[in-house]
Design a protein that fits this description.
heterodimer, A: alpha/beta, four-stranded antiparallel β-sheet, 10 strands, B: mainly alpha, 15 helices, flat
Chain lengths: ~240, ~350
């Protein structure tokens, strides 16, 4: 089996006249924690959402393991069950409990029977430390708790790759840590992850590979500690001097 | 840290009494007496004289008691308005000021009603009463009235339900990303929103049996026309409801591997339904009154709705009291529905409907 989990080849994305991604080639390997940083508007969220085709690239090919996801004959819904995604705004279903948010896709997409779905959901809620909130609605949970439920919801599908799209950006400062800790634990368990973030501490400590992206191009790609210590591109230097 | 022992202040009757002044209570009292006198007094005189025969109603309005009510409601009303104007700004507490203002407002309302009662009772009460307040002939038709009210409710409910089912399907097609699916739904919706309901009812009731040679009862035709119309309007309500759900909800569902239809069914529509309940109830209130247009199809006696019944009674007897009953019938159906819409909207705004079930 190949080590490659996700591969982007020659990706370009246009929003109207706006050229957001200008030729991206990356390969994410099993077990890697790829952290993507860059100024706002640089295209890092778009890059992440191209991986599971929530954004369709204007040009280029996306592969998941050995499947070409951009091939129109590929069953996209099936591929997506292998790729978990967590959003900045949590995006829990407000009409379902924490438990219901997790079981719905297990039952309707993976066709797991309801007892098994409940067991798996509770397992994942326990994993993120929220088993006691199983029957709470999103509106009754704090932002940090909602985001951890969203992580549990993605993990319950038993994905091979997890995508995190600025998942701490909407949180109050005192709630950021609980979410980062959950992600750190996940990385420790060997999950393959792509993380778009502004948390430089997390990037340095947990990331196994750092991408710096600006104006739709990858300017740095390497071990986080090296890039933080010795950035090669002028723009990386200027960005890091502003955020560190 | 020092913790202040905060006790929730008592806002009971004793507190209200403490915050009031004798002047504010007096202004409020005079205003209240004025409005109660004109409303309850008139009602009492009418009841004591009886509603039938029509001469009794006439006698009540021409009585000295009625003149007494007119005079005193205006006198007391003026007193409380003056009292409020002179004292409200000087009141020491919020409660007493509000009491004085409420007294003045009630007094002003009593003046308006008292003057209206005076003008009415000094006019040609006889002519008005035999046309609009002659209850005796209407009472004999009361069972038919109840039957007509039942027909109106039946017409509205059937068309509402059929219209909702049709509307959901149309909203689905009209929201499609594919133009070929969207176009027929849009054409349908625009046609039924762009032509008068009366035209639709007459066209379906008269045109379809003639043109297609299909024999449908006028009642069936009425239900079909109202349902088709309701379908177009509720489709727009559903579409707005679905569009009001954040796009991120769809992304979350698709990100979990749901198909577009699954995302709609399990994530979007359950949320949208909660939001469209008040506007759909509103459409129902409008529909109840629109059912009256079936009058133009000419209904058999046992098929008559409220307006047909009133119109028939008026035509037969030249007694417009039938139409007063018709209005009361529509109010009896619509007011609870209007109340329900208000309650639902309030709950929805406070987010209570968003949570649960």
């Amino acid at each position: 089996m190949s080590q490659s989990v996700a591969r982007l080849v020659g990706i370009h994305k246009w929003f109207g006249d706006n050229h957001v991604l200008r030729g991206i080639d990356i390969e994410v390997e099993r077990g890697q924690v790829v952290v993507v940083i860059g100024p706002s508007g640089s295209g890092k969220s778009t890059l992440l959402r191209v991986i599971n085709l929530l954004e369709e690239p204007t040009e280029g090919k996306v592969f998941f393991e050995d499947t070409e996801v951009t091939d129109i004959r590929t069953d996209l819904n099936k591929v997506r069950t292998n790729i978990g995604i967590v959003f900045q705004g949590y995006n829990l279903f407000p009409h379902k409990t924490a438990l219901g948010n997790i079981t719905i896709a297990l039952e309707k997409v993976l066709k797991v029977d309801s007892d098994e779905a409940k067991t798996r959901a509770l397992e994942q809620l326990d994993h993120v430390g929220l088993k006691h909130k199983a029957d709470s609605y999103p509106g009754q949970l704090s932002g940090g708790q909602q985001q951890r439920v969203a992580i549990a919801r993605a993990l319950a599908m038993r994905p091979k790759l997890m995508l995190f799209d600025e998942v701490t950006s909407a949180l109050d400062p005192e709630l950021v840590k609980e979410v980062l800790d959950t992600m750190k634990e996940l990385a420790g368990e060997g999950m393959t992850m792509v993380v778009v973030t502004h948390e430089m501490g997390f990037a340095r400590e947990v990331g196994s590979r750092l991408l710096f992206i600006d104006e739709g191009l990858i300017l740095e790609d390497g071990p986080p500690k090296e890039i933080f210590a010795n950035p090669s591109d002028e723009r990386t230097k200027s960005f890091l001097s502003h955020v560190l | 840290m020092a913790t202040a022992q905060a006790v929730k202040p008592d806002r009971g009757l004793a507190w209200v009494r403490k915050e009031s002044t004798s002047t504010s209570l007096a202004v409020l009292g005079v205003g209240a007496v004025a409005i109660l006198l004109v409303i309850l007094g008139t009602a009492l005189i009418l009841i004591l004289n009886g509603f039938t025969p029509v001469e009794a109603v006439e006698r009540a309005f021409k009585s000295n008691e009625t003149k007494f009510i007119c005079l005193w409601s205006v006198v007391l009303g003026v007193a409380s308005v003056l009292g409020a104007l002179l004292t409200a700004k000087k009141m020491p507490t919020k409660v007493s000021r509000e009491q004085a203002i409420a007294g003045g407002v009630l007094g002003a309302q009593a003046i308006v009603l008292g003057v209206l009662l005076w003008v009415f009772s000094s006019g040609d009460v006889h002519k008005f009463a035999i046309n609009y307040l002659d209850f005796a002939p209407v009472q004999k038709q009361f069972p038919a009235f109840l039957h007509a009210a039942r027909n109106t409710v039946f017409l509205a409910l059937t068309s509402e339900l059929a219209g909702i089912v049709l509307g959901l399907a149309l909203a689905g097609f009209a929201s499609s990303a594919r133009a070929v699916v969207r176009a027929p739904a849009r054409t349908y919706i625009n046609f039924f929103r762009g032509t008068p309901l009366l035209w639709q009812i007459v066209f379906i009731g008269v045109g379809i049996p003639l043109g297609l040679g299909i024999n449908i009862s006028t009642y069936t035709a009425a239900v079909i026309a109202l349902s088709l119309n309701m379908g177009a309007y509720s489709a727009e309500v559903f579409r707005a409801g679905i569009q009001s759900i954040e796009k991120s909800q769809l992304e979350a569902a698709r990100g979990l591997g749901m198909s577009y239809m699954q995302a709609m069914r399990y994530a979007i529509v359950p949320q949208a339904v909660r939001r469209v309940i008040p506007p759909l109830m509103n459409e129902f209130v409008i529909l109840v009154k629109d059912t009256s247009l079936v009058l133009f199809l000419g209904l058999a006696t046992n098929e008559r709705d409220l307006l047909s019944w009133g119109n028939q009674g008026y035509g037969n007897t030249f007694n417009a009291t039938f139409l007063i009953y018709t209005a009361l019938g529509y109010l009896a159906i619509c007011l609870p529905a209007i109340r329900l819409v208000n309650v639902l909207e309030k709950r929805l705004r406070s987010g209570l409907v968003g949570v649960g079930a």
